[in-house]
Amino acid sequence: MTPDALAAMTGRALPRPALEVGVGAALAGLGVSLCLHRVAERPRATDWQPGLAIAPSTLDDLLELLLSRRPGTSAHWLSLSFDDGYRDAAEYVRTRAARFPSVEFFFFVCPAKVERRAGFRWDLVEQRLIAGTPRAEALELLASPHLNATENTRADLRGLADVPEFAMATPDEVRALAALPNVIVGNHSNLHASPVTLPDAEAAADYRASRDDFERLFGRQRHFAFPFGTPQHHFQRRHVELLRALGDFTVWTTEARPYRLSERRPGAVLPRYPVDGQRSAAELAGWLAARALAFRLRGTRHHF
User: Fold this and answer.
1) DSSP state of 52
2) Residue-wise pLDDT tens digits, 196-251
3) 112, 141, 178, 210: most buried, per Cβ within 10 A?
């Protein structure tokens, strides 16, 4: 059994009061950001990535559990971020922002996809699987190079963002979220490619074009979230430097740890816990706490 699985099992086994105390102690004084993608009562039968969706009741329970002891001293110690701009996630943010006013809600969008209604390749894979395409053949759709000139004008992606199963929020819906007091809209690039798979010139062009598109549609870019954001594995120092050349904004990763509140400042590179939506709130809380304790013991961090 992996340490993460053991931590999740421990969270499930503890009585709720004991879990709340333990999680509160583990996270006290630290910043915590959770990274999610979609919200659904149950996974779609054809969803080949079910861990990327979470039931709204599970997420509500997790937020209530984390807030029960109010660890930390910052008003913004807890943030909940959704990547990719799906409409079901937008609806969760819209309906929960007032219910959880002390939580920061981030909504990261790929501006060209939102505007042009060009979907994601993995949704195209699911669409092909539904149509009976062999899995190996469908997955080949993920492998071709991402090119700024063509990715969001591809005929097979055009209109996918308006298919009900894969619907993204519209620009107007994104702007409505941004108007809420505890919601922040951020940039998630136009290509949504793992940075290490891109030539540096292509990555730089993507970051520059997506910033320009984002600011034209939604205002100043204050936050950027790496797609496939594991440090060293998906992106490296040079990718951070490409972003820093464009402005003084916060960059978010998917490194599964908390951060020191002193780390949060413009230009910082901050971690987010990638949430497995198939786990219960108690299991997730146990995992968050275990990762926080490991962070305190080892002081693990990446310097960019």
Assistant:
1) G
2) 999 999 999 999 999 999 999 999 999 999 999 999 999 999 999 999 999 999 99
3) 210
